[in-house]
């Protein structure tokens, strides 16, 4: 990456793998379980979080020297809340159906632990450009897991991807369904999302033994 | 060269390699190994883990054989050409439907156990021997084999291996497998069509306009929930001539299996007894609610609530779950006082779920899984209570 210095590039790449907010820090699990039954919802959620976290980190970073430390949590909340409302309104305006699927979970981005965590841990102590990169990086790390989970849950649970019937038609019995395949209803329930996240964590830690705590 | 010495030679040949655990397991599976431990004094116990498992399997065999007869008997009764219960025709249908379930269950489960043993380099553990036998007994006879294979893979990996293998699991693997099937493929695991072989196809024919009778393959729990009638006599319920999962129908044979387990000191009589008591108490409470007139016949719970309380022991999977699954030594409570509490709650909650949630008619599965999760907590408080009692005694003495 010629554009970014090595140190800055790490801000993006670290959260993707060895410091992933979901699988390593185990933050933001609630939304990962709730909205990943469909791939499309996962992607929209990931993009929304990226917008909120990227912009929010910059705003907090710019204000970091004038926020009194005693009321910093309230200030952070105001910033997130404002950004989330904007995202919510945009979603409602341009893709109403999807915003209904995501329902309350867009609003609940406010309580997503990753966002407050990054504000506290990074934006309060770093300049705007680095904070921006850190926000994008962490949102990407979050989004990657969401997309992986959403991919498997939609494929195995509904037999579709982004709404396309990739495995054939379950009612007309075409494709895989012709030989007796059936969708796995368990995949659509939240517990299965937890198990899929668990499997991702398992795979990641058995590939990189340094991550295993004892 | 006998099979035994062949196996022994193979084992010697692969000693120290990655594949060694697989051969060791095969060897000790079938024979008592020749080698003895050296040095020190050892107490030899005849009942190692494999013998324990084999004993449980022996207790399950009558249920399996009966299940085969019953599968055919129910099938012919349902399609309108009833046959004698103990007839070759009935057994044949049962054999060709049930045997593949057993083979798939053992094949997939043991393959995964062997795989994990080779990868992780430990000995193959025998935990799957009983699970593999339990699984075909607690599923509907018409379950597609690939679904069973997927569920077994899930149950063994997620239910057991991720926790560290046999003896470390929190949930009973056989019930994990059944719960997976239940939530993943509900159309194959509940309703009135799945319990009798051929009922699904038959319903399809009727829907297409064929001139045949619709068969009723409804379990007693299902018909009680829907139409308030049991439809079978108490004797049928006790001996097991009723539709249901393969091996769960005959309370008589389960009872004999249970007595065998108690006699060989492998199953805990405390858990079995307290679970029965728990179920009876809950059944009595519901009977009391009905007889005091708090609910009327129009209530959707009326059928199941008004069923005579001790009938609950005979219908559904209660007896099977209590005898063979609640007593699983790994997932049940370990302390004696804990076993009473654990068993009582298993029975109590089973009937509670059974009556109040007709969508999950088999409450015993969910009740046992729930109590599996709570078993360590129960043990913790029993042990703490004991510690406190002894501390008190110590203080009195020293004071």
From TrEMBL, chain A:
NCBIfam families given in the database record: nqrD, PRK09292.1
GO molecular function: oxidoreductase activity, acting on NAD(P)H, quinone or similar compound as acceptor
Protein location: Cell membrane; Endomembrane system
General function of this protein: NQR complex catalyzes the reduction of ubiquinone-1 to ubiquinol by two successive reactions, coupled with the transport of Na(+) ions from the cytoplasm to the periplasm. NqrA to NqrE are probably involved in the second step, the conversion of ubisemiquinone to ubiquinol.
Any single biological process term in GO: sodium ion transport
Keyword field contains Ion transport: yes
Database matches in Pfam families: Rnf-Nqr
Top-level taxonomic group: Bacteria
Quaternary structure annotation from Swiss-Prot or TrEMBL: Composed of six subunits; NqrA, NqrB, NqrC, NqrD, NqrE and NqrF.
InterPro entries from the UniProt entry: NqrD, NqrDE/RnfAE
UniProt keyword annotations, A-Z: Cell inner membrane, Cell membrane, Ion transport, Membrane, NAD, Sodium, Sodium transport, Translocase, Transmembrane, Transmembrane helix, Transport, Ubiquinone
Species for this entry: Neotamlana nanhaiensis
GO CC terms in record: endomembrane system; plasma membrane
Name assigned to this protein: Na(+)-translocating NADH-quinone reductase subunit D
Family under the similarity heading: Belongs to the NqrDE/RnfAE family.
TrEMBL record, chain B:
Location within or outside the cell: Cell membrane
One GO cellular component term noted in the UniProt record for this chain: plasma membrane
Modification FMN phosphoryl threonine occurs at: 219
Listed transmembrane segments: 52-71, 91-116, 128-158, 237-264, 271-289, 309-327, 339-357, 363-383
Membrane topology designation: Multi-pass membrane protein
Catalytic activity: a ubiquinone + n Na(+)(in) + NADH + H(+) = a ubiquinol + n Na(+)(out) + NAD(+)
One of the GO biological process terms: sodium ion transport
Cofactor(s) the protein requires to work: FMN
GO molecular-function terms, A-Z: FMN binding; oxidoreductase activity, acting on NAD(P)H, quinone or similar compound as acceptor
Family: Belongs to the NqrB/RnfD family.
HAMAP family given in the database record: NqrB
Function description: NQR complex catalyzes the reduction of ubiquinone-1 to ubiquinol by two successive reactions, coupled with the transport of Na(+) ions from the cytoplasm to the periplasm. NqrA to NqrE are probably involved in the second step, the conversion of ubisemiquinone to ubiquinol.
PANTHER family reported for this sequence: ELECTRON TRANSPORT COMPLEX PROTEIN RNFD, NA(+)-TRANSLOCATING NADH-QUINONE REDUCTASE SUBUNIT B
Assembly with partners or alone: Composed of six subunits; NqrA, NqrB, NqrC, NqrD, NqrE and NqrF.
Protein name: Na(+)-translocating NADH-quinone reductase subunit B
Annotated source species: Neotamlana laminarinivorans
Gene name of the encoded protein: nqrB
């Amino acid at each position: 990456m010629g554009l970014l210095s090595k140190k800055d590039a790490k801000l993006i790449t670290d959260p993707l793998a060895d410091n992933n907010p979901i699988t390593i820090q185990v933050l933001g699990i609630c939304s990962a379980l709730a909205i990943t039954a469909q791939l499309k919802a996962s992607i929209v959620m990931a993009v929304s979080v990226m917008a909120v976290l990227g912009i929010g980190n910059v705003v907090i970073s710019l204000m970091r020297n004038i926020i009194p430390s005693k009321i910093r949590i309230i200030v952070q909340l105001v910033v997130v809340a404002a950004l989330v409302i904007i995202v919510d309104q945009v979603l409602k305006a341009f893709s109403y159906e999807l915003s209904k699927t995501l329902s309350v979970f867009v609003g609940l981005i406010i309580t997503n632990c990753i966002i407050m965590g990054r504000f506290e841990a990074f934006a309060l102590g770093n300049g705007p450009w680095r904070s921006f990169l850190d926000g994008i990086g962490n949102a990407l790390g979050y989004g990657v897991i969401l997309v992986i989970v959403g991919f498997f849950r939609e494929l195995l649970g509904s037999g579709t991807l982004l709404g396309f019937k990739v495995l054939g038609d379950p009612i007309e019995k075409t494709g895989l369904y012709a030989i007796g395949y059936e969708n796995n209803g368990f995949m659509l329930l939240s517990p299965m999302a937890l198990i899929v996240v668990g499997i991702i964590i398992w795979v990641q830690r058995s590939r990189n033994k340094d991550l295993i705590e004892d | 060269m006998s099979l035994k010495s062949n196996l022994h030679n193979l084992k010697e040949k692969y000693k120290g390699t990655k594949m060694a655990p697989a051969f060791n397991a095969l060897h000790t599976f079938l024979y008592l190994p020749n080698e003895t431990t050296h040095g020190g004094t050892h107490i030899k116990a005849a009942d190692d883990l494999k013998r324990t498992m084999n004993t449980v399997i022996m207790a399950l065999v009558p249920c399996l054989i009966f299940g085969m007869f019953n599968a055919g008997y129910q099938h012919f009764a349902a399609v309108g050409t009833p046959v004698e219960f103990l007839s070759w025709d009935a057994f044949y249908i049962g054999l060709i439907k049930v045997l593949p379930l057993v083979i798939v269950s053992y094949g997939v489960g043991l393959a995964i156990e062997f795989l994990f043993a080779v990868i992780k380099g430990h000995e193959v553990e025998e935990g799957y021997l009983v699970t593999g036998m339990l699984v075909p007994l607690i599923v509907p006879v018409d379950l597609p084999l690939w679904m069973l294979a997927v569920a077994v893979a899930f149950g063994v990996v997620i239910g057991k291996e991720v926790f560290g293998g046999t003896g470390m699991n929190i949930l009973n693997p056989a019930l994990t497998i059944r719960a997976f099937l239940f939530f993943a493929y509900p159309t194959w695991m509940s309703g009135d069509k799945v319990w009798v072989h051929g009922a699904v196809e038959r319903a399809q024919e009727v829907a297409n306009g064929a001139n045949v009778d619709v068969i009723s393959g409804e379990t007693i729990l299902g018909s009680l929930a829907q139409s308030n009638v049991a439809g079978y006599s108490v004797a049928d319920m006790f001996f097991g001539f009723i539709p249901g999962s393969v091996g769960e129908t005959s309370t008589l044979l389960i009872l004999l299996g249970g007595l065998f387990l108690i006699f060989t000191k492998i199953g805990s009589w405390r858990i079995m007894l307290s679970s029965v008591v728990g179920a009876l108490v809950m059944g009595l409470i519901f009977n009391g609610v009905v007889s005091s007139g708090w609910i009327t016949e129009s209530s959707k719970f009326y059928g199941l609530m008004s069923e005579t309380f001790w009938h609950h022991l005979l219908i559904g999977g209660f007896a099977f779950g209590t005898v063979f699954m609640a007593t699983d030594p790994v997932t049940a409570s370990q302390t004696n006082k804990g076993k009473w509490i654990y068993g009582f709650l298993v029975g109590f909650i089973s009937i509670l779920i059974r009556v109040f949630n007709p969508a999950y008619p088999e409450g015993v599965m969910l009740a046992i899984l729930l109590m599996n999760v709570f078993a360590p907590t129960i043990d913790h408080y029993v042990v703490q209570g004991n510690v406190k009692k002894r501390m008190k005694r110590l203080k009195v003495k020293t004071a």
